[in-house]
Amino acid sequence: KADTIIVGTITNMEQNRLSRTRPGGLPQELEVRITVDVEWKNLSTGKVIRDRKGVTAVGRYIPVRDVGEQYQVGQHESVQRLSQEIVAAMRGDW
């Protein structure tokens, strides 16, 4: 049985165009931005150890024909960066 638990809630997820091709105006580089609220709680006492709102991370990808990365590439990068941010926040005052 765990002593603590970390619960995260996705509060926002969006995709933004960073650049487009010339000619044609097709998206050349896109970003996936994910924002979460995170709570780390001691299960035996019920006390919240850490509470962070609005933790945000961005992942980028290139969907154009030559590279052809899919949305999941940007999403994966964003989630990886988000997990690093959360771990850094949890270790902050230890």
Give the topology.
Blueprint: E1 4-20, E2 27-42, E3 48-61, H1 71-91
Radius of gyration: 17 Å
As an assembly, this protein is: single chain
Total strand segments = 3
Q: Main beta sheet, described?
A: 3 strands, antiparallel
Widest beta sheet: strand line-up: 1-2-3
Structural class: alpha+beta
Beta strand %:
over 45%
Give a written overview of the molecule:
The chain is an alpha+beta fold and 94 residues long. The chain has a 3-stranded antiparallel beta sheet with strand order 1-2-3, with helices on one face. Helices cover 22% and strands 50% of the residues. The protein is elongated and about 60 Å long. It has one helix spanning 71-91, and strands at 4-20, 27-42, 48-61.
